[in-house]
């Protein structure tokens, strides 16, 4: 039970840090590579 809570907190904090970095630096416009579908995701959001 304790381990699941730790994993949940880790995921939550990492997501919050990712959102903070995203809002501070803005979405990455440079292509990050063919293995990551981040460009398609940003294009779908826009």
Structural write-up:
- The protein has 2 helices and no strands.
- With 46 residues, it is an all-alpha fold.
- The chain has one domain (2-45).
- 0% of the residues are buried.
- Helices cover 70% and strands 0% of the residues.
- Residues 27-46 are annotated as: Disordered.
Helix-strand layout with pairing:
Layout lengths: L1 H24 L12 H8 L1
- Integer-rounded radius of gyration: 14 Å
The share of residues in extended strands comes to under 5%
**Number of H/I helices:** 2
Q: Tally the beta strands.
A: 0
Nutshell version of this structure?
This protein is mostly helical and 46 residues long. 70% of the residues lie in helices and 0% in strands.
Features:
single chain; 46 residues; mainly alpha; 2 helices; 70% helix
